[in-house]
Amino acid sequence: MKTLNFNKVKRLTGKAVADYRMITEGDRIMVGLSGGKDSMMLVHVLEALRRRAPVNFEIEIVTFDPGFDGFEADEIAEYCKLQGWSHHTVAAPMESIIREKKAENRPCLLCSRLRRGLLYKKADELKCGKVALGHNLDDIAVSLLISMFRGGGITTMSPNVPADEADLRIIRPLAYAPEDLVSAAAAELELPVFGECAYKELLDEHGDRAYFMKLLTKINKKIPNVRQHVLHSMQDVRPAYLLDLKFLNLSG
């Protein structure tokens, strides 16, 4: 089997992990596995790195089961068992909760808050000090655009950041890997995809993230390698040339 793209993802992941010091000796890391290609790729890459890394670390894989029709939590668990991975499932009846809260038009905020709380609780039970998520370079670039265009400040998903509501760190080892490379590597390994969000069509049609993902692809036609350019810009912040008064020297 050819693994050219998978090897590229591994190299980019290893560099991001080293640059942002995501993994240290003795870490126990909980990896969120939704069953999509990004989280599936994340587990495979971390397992590959774990076997050759200069530091010892352990992985516990956790899937959040929202109870949506077609979400294949049992198949995810079986796949992990076949791979020899330690896997756990946490569940919540999101469909009924969303209806109860009348949040059908904006389900993500409610779902993400509940999912985050359950995953953080599970990380504590498993004695994991870090939670690894499968966000890739496109996700990080798009988060920056959404925040800027929605007036949320110049901010995005950091590759290594303290969790807001728990004594944990959130790491994103795929931070340097663009979406198209992750997709190509997933196809190369013939990774299965298990289920999807019940609100996917709604989010694809009206969600900010889907809109800015399409916009990023459109911009790339005019400015090739725009994702890497955005990454470079996020690594070259010049506060003195922005408008935040906290960073400006206005005297003299």
Topology, pairings included?
Elements: H1 4-19, E1 27-32, H2 37-52, E2 57-65, H3 73-83, E3 87-91, H4 94-100, H5 107-125, E4 130-132, H6 137-149, E5 160-162, E6 169-171, H7 179-188, H8 200-206, H9 208-222, H10 226-234
Parallel strand pairs: 1-2, 1-4, 2-3, 4-6
Antiparallel strand pairs: 5-6
Helix pairs in contact: 1-2, 1-7, 2-7, 6-9, 8-9
Largest sheet: 6 strands, mixed
Low-pLDDT segments, ≥5 res: none
The CATH topology name reads Rossmann fold
Strand content: 5-15%
What is the CATH architecture term?
Answer: 3-Layer(aba) Sandwich
In round numbers, the mean pLDDT is 93
Explain this structure.
- The chain is α/β, with parallel strands linked by helices and 252 residues long.
- It has a single domain (4-247), classed as 3-Layer(aba) Sandwich (Rossmann fold).
- The chain is 49% helix and 12% strand.
- It contains 10 helices and 6 strands; from the N terminus they run αβαβαβααβαββαααα.
- It has helices at 4-19, 37-52, 73-83, 94-100, 107-125, 137-149, 179-188, 200-206, 208-222, 226-234, and strands spanning 27-32, 57-65, 87-91, 130-132, 160-162, 169-171.
- It has a 6-stranded mixed sheet.
- Helix 1 packs across helix 2 (37-52).
- The radius of gyration is 19 Å and the shape is globular.
